[in-house]
Amino acid sequence: MATRLKKVTNRKNPRQTAFTRFMLIVAFFILWIGAIGVRLVHLQINQSEWLREKAQDQRRDEVKIKTLRGTIYDRTERTLAMSVKVKSLYADPKEIDDVEFTAQQVAAALKIKPDAILKDLREAKENNKRFVWLAQKLDEDTAQKLNKTLDTADLKKFDAPKFKGLHWREEQKRSYPYKNLAAQIIGFSNAEDVGQSGIEQSQEESLRGAVVKSWQDRDRLGRVYDQSETTRQPPKDVVLTISHSIQYKVEQALEKGVKASNSKSGTAIVLDPRTGEVLAMAAYPSFDPNRYTEFPAENYQNKAIQSIYSPGSIFKIVAYSSALDLKMITADSMIDCSRGFIEVAGHRFNDPHATKTMSYIEAMAVSSNVAAIKTGLSLGKENFYGYAQKFGFGQPTGIELPAEARGLFRAPQTWNGDSLASMSIGYEIGVTAMQMATAYAAIANNGVRIKPHIVKEIRDSTGKAISVTEVEQTPIVSAEAAHGLRRMLREVVLKGTAKRAQLNGYTSAGKTGTAWKYNAKIKRVDAGKYVSSFVGMAPAENPAIVIVVVMDEPSGGARDGGQVSAPVFREIAEQILPEMNIVPDNTIQQENLTAQVIPSEIEKVELPATNDAEIVEKGDLPKKELKKIAEKVAVGETIKETKKVEKQTKPDARKEDKSPSEDKKIKPKPAIVTTEKKNKSSTEKVKKKT
Amino acid sequence: MNKRKQSAKTQTQTKRRGGDPIPWKYCLLTLCCGLLLVVGFFFAARSHFSSIDFGIKNSRLRKQIDELEGDKRRLILSKEIALSPAEIKKAAKKIGLTEMNASNIEVYRPNPNAVKEKPKVIEKPKLEFLNKPEEVKKEVKKSEDKPEKKAPDAKDKPERTKVQLAKK
Predict the structure, then answer these.
(1) Residue A191's CATH number
(2) Which residue segment(s) compose the domain that A533 sits in?
(3) How far is CA A278 from CA A182, A310, A520, in A?
(4) Given CB atoms, is A262 within the 8 Å cutoff of chain B?
């Protein structure tokens, strides 16, 4: 019985055994899960950063993209400068196994010699570099062609080109579709897309494209499945006040004027006096910002705002307008210039044009130095200096262009005994063309000076204007004084030194200026070098435009502003005023240019009375031969004749340009007369020949 | 007593061992939970892969937008280049147009001494009938033979109105 009981007690309870086993398993699992938990906690807390970075590295790429630079528009919404995306090809030498083969393939695709590429790739591979430029800033079409040429069929690669170790990088390229047009205004940006001159430089902050960081998550095949980027601030667009059409006309007229007068360079500005908007600003010679490296650095300079010159007689408006404003004179009051010279502090100022008592209008018309000096002296140093400052001389105009010159205008304390007299006629000072334009615009705008500006507005990427340039007005002289001065300036064009500034269909007013250039070597003015300028406005009563034309060192015979610069003014004004819808206020002289039926010279040709004539009658002679005979007779002769006419006309033009006093004697002949001559003589010759 | 108890215990043990130890309700619940879990996993996986798929599509579309914007810019640029005055000038020269200068404007002035030629009278071209029915030919001939009706002159009009007024 006892043994049986022992057996019973020794035998374990099966439920308990199962429970114990179960608990063991649970304990094991708990321990296991606990260990995992501990490991997880360790990974999540202590190694989280390292793990995250590692995971991100495996699937995520960091891409830095530079947003495209802002666009520059003209006032008619035409694109003057724009950035486009381009592609640059680079190689990762670490991924390349056969460097020679790669170099050969790439060179063949780029149509260049493989030596340079091979050298670069080898050097990079030896130095463990992972980046080598192969071709930069290629347009989309070229990139596509390269992709096709470099395509390897078996290669599994997520990005183009399908060639081992070659990749594309997106970049941007600045393009200037109008090439030379307004080059000095727009400026250019360098390879890093940073503005170097002009609007590109002054508006760098608005135009600059921000660098945007973006992260791309890629799958095992390299496809991007998630993308996130930092907040980007898109660049702004700049709208200018210039009009591409007016700018083109101004540039063409200026180029023509510079070539005709054989000047070193030329500058022209067209300003709207009522708003202060610069409609055009040109300098010749110019450059193409698309390939600016091919041009001399001198051409980059915007001479209209950066170049200082002695204004000469065009500065006389300061003395006259100040005297008119102070009611010391009126336009019709008389001044004595009887001696033809004036002596101030031992300096004798000669004046061959005015040697009698005359009205101020007449004195202005003949550009009398004596009258201007006398007026300046009567004003006194302080008044003269004060008014000149009011006009804006000696300080930058504040136009939105970089490196604007202040000009040279000394304080009265540093003046010599004859300085006031010299300044009254535009010497001993230095001005910019823009300063002159602003001063004349104030006269055109009834004595109110308006700050010139070239930036019309700045827009955000959606096209909404975020900044509009406001007009700053400063009254300088009274409206009566401005009106009186305009009358005087009108007389200059009608009877004075600027007759060549008379417009067809519009009234005009203005002043010529011819000044000797200062030679730094000899430290005095050089009598052989001039700066000839003309500042004009039209229509004379209610001016809509003010045009400044400055020619540097004209050497083609004529040197006076009235002969060199005034014709350029006329050409510009006659072209742009109708474009601006300004109603003509003067009689329009219609040139007889209507085409009439001219008996063809070919038809007139009488064929030689040979057997050929019979053949012609029969209609057997081919038309080609007929034409040949006709051309020989007609065309050849006319060409010779036109050359002769040109030779004849050139010396006449020089004679005309010699001095303004000779204007009255020799009237410029219209071009039509010469062509008439040409026609007559050519037809006569044709007849003789036949 | 012990025997009875023991026999009862063995009876119950044999009963539990022989029958289903877990009730079917629990099994069903476990199955449901398992199914739910599997379905959950399935949906999670599906949404994960579809999100990746959408992401890929999205990035492709983004790229496409960028490319289209680039194309648009390039087109604007080429349009501007084509419309630039210098290019227009080039094109004009290509088709043979020249700049209007005094040298290439030819103004014809007739010689006053020359005898004026009488202007040539151009005869009215006769109508030719080619492959037309005779009826048509006759009609046309009739219309040609008929005297043309004079259009009422401006001077006639007021007279007629005066007569009409008088009648009235």
Answers:
(1) 3.90.1310.10
(2) 244-579
(3) 12, 22, 32
(4) no
